Amino acid sequence: MARFRNGHVTALNPTSIQISPAERLRGILPDPEIAALAPIIEEIEELKVRRKAAILAHNYMTPDIFHGVSDLKGDSLALARMAAETEAEVIVMAGVHFMAETAKIVNEDKTVLIPDLNAGCSLADAITGADVRLLKERYPGVPVVTYVNTSADVKAESDICCTSGNAVQVVESLGVDRVIFLPDQYLGRWVATQTEVEIILWEGACEVHERFTAEELRGYRSLNPGIQIIAHPECPPDVLDEADFVGSTAGMINWVKSERPRQVVMVTECSMSDNVAVESPGTEFVRPCNLCPHMKRITLENIRDALRDMKHEVSIDPAIAERARKSVERMLAVPV
Fold first, then answer.
1. Which of 89, 145, 269, 270 has the most CB atoms within 10 Å of its CB?
2. What is the mean pLDDT of residues 17-42?
3. Where on the phi/psi map is residue 221: left (φ > 0), alpha (ψ -120 to 50), or beta?
4. What is the per-residue pLDDT for 255?
5. Tens of pLDDT along 124-183?
6. In the chain, where the domains are located
7. Residue 122: is its pLDDT beyond 90?
8. What whole-number distance in Å separates Cα of residue 135 and Cα of residue 213?
């Protein structure tokens, strides 16, 4: 199976056990909180060594996980690439279930664990493989581009996957006049503004990003003159129209690092601002705190339990995994 190494090998455990929790979290969390967390973080580090494991953490994880125990971290696209590259024998996904499934799809010979089986996603729940089959009957010959925020069953029915970071490139890589784009209607509408390709939409939405409103953003501007607003394309169109920059999780992070705004609102999941602020000390982050209830199911305690008890292992029907793997591999092969 292709490993997508791109000429390099990813380290097994970049956050070595020799680096203490205090060193890792100093300046990120209060000292009393670090002291309270130190025993469980040290226990997790010991378990990682014993299990030859790596923890992959999405940007929406809380700082104690994102900075305290993760080995590899990033947005959905980065995690998919890292999952394919890591030398770890066990992958613990500090994220939601579709991310763990994607890690398993590109690592059929590795053990992939999800700390909480109920860590789902409103987008993944918005569509099924049967729905995709009906769409293909309705639009014969039209390629299906599927957001990675979907189940393995849906990926198996798709021609190619994408993330918010490469959706436009993926759509245009197919060289066709129109595509079926699943399942996020708002990301699909934004992609349609960036390309001449006709986009056939499904009416799914992220329960976190859909809650933002244009009126809310105008309120931030009135209270904070000169503030910069950057938004994720999973937000409704009127929200994106109010933003100074629209981009993926990685795109927003890179924008903050390059532009160094005095004051910024990141219109996305709340914990991401906490994590980006650590690397952008000169920027004040005004935090609209919309939390993802599914991401917040992942805790240090259930990460520890997953490694200790080797639960909950992600398994995918081999026939579905093989077909889903093709759509993920095609995505990873598209230059960004």
1. 145
2. 86
3. alpha
4. 95
5. 999 999 999 999 999 999 999 999 999 999 999 999 999 998 999 999 999 999 999 999
6. 21-121+295-309, 133-206, 209-286
7. yes
8. 31
Rounded Cα distance between 306 and 90, Å, is 11
Instruction: Tell me whether the omega of the peptide bond preceding residue 115 falls within 30 degrees of 0, making it cis.
Output: no
Q: What top-level class would CATH report for the domain 133-206?
A: alpha beta
Which two structure tokens, joined as six digits, stand for 266?
A: 């990141």
Does 209-286 match 133-206 at the fold level? Answer: yes
b/e per residue 230-260 (b: at least 16 CB within 10 A): bbbbbbbeebbebbbbbbbbbbbbebbeeee
pLDDT of residue 18: 64
Question: 21-121+295-309 in CATH: which number?
Answer: 3.40.50.10800
DSSP codes, 273-285: HHHHHHT-TTSEE
pLDDT at 304 over 50: yes
Q: What is the pTM of this model?
A: 0.85
Share of the chain above pLDDT 70, in %: 94
